Amino acid sequence: MSAGILNIVVEKGATFSRSIAVKDASNAAINLTGATVRAKMRPSYESEDATAFTMAITNAAQGLVSWLMPDETTAGLSTGVSAVWVYDVEIEYSDGTVERILQGTATVSPEATR
Questions:
Q1: Are 109 and 9 in contact (CB under 8 A)?
Q2: What pLDDT was estimated at residue 82?
Q3: pLDDT digit of tens for each residue in the chain (114 aa)?
Q4: Contacts of 48 (CB under 8 A, 6+ apart)
Q5: Helix (H, G, I), strand (E, B) or coil at 72
Q6: What is the distance between the alpha carbons of residues 94 and 96, in angstroms, rounded to a whole number?
Q7: Strand 54-59 vs strand 64-69: parallel, antiparallel, or unpaired?
Q8: pLDDT at position 79, please?
Q9: Is 13 left (phi over 0), alpha (psi -120 to 50) or beta?
Q10: How far, in Å, CA of 45 to CA of 26, rounded?
């Protein structure tokens, strides 16, 4: 199955927090027991620099995942010319297979209150 596309906004200096419900093509929850979830964003696909999101499976049987980047981390993200980053979210299942479930752009909005 192809990864879903979701363009997000990450506010510099603020906590980024979302929940993901991982489902199959028939809209049934995918059991994530034994799986791990990872996600990174970078200024471009070619960039060596990357910033990781903190990912946690909150309910494996229901396919629920928390997606977080703390304010201390978002405060260090660059804005301006490189304000539009790219990201993806991947699941590694217990059998070692990896599936990209979500991808898109991450626009970093600048912070006035600092």
A1: yes
A2: 59
A3: 789 999 999 999 999 999 999 999 899 999 999 999 999 999 999 999 999 999 999 999 999 999 999 999 999 998 876 589 999 999 999 999 999 999 999 999 998 887
A4: none
A5: helix
A6: 5
A7: antiparallel
A8: 80
A9: left
A10: 31
Provide the pLDDT for residue 112. Answer: 85
Q: What end-to-end distance do the CA atoms of the chain give, in Å?
A: 42
- Read off the tokens for 5: 């596309």
Amino acid at 64: L
The pTM for the full model equals 0.91
Cβ contact 77:61 at 8 Å: no
Q: Catalogue all structural domains in the chain, each as residue range(s) with its CATH number.
A: 4-109 (2.60.40.10)
Go through the chain and tell me how many residues it has.
Answer: 114
- Say if residues 70 and 30 touch (Cβ distance below 8 Å): no
Q: What does 1-24 look like in DSSP terms, one character per residue?
A: -PPEE--EEEETTS-EEEEEE-B-
- Residues 77, 13: Cα–Cα separation, whole Å: 9
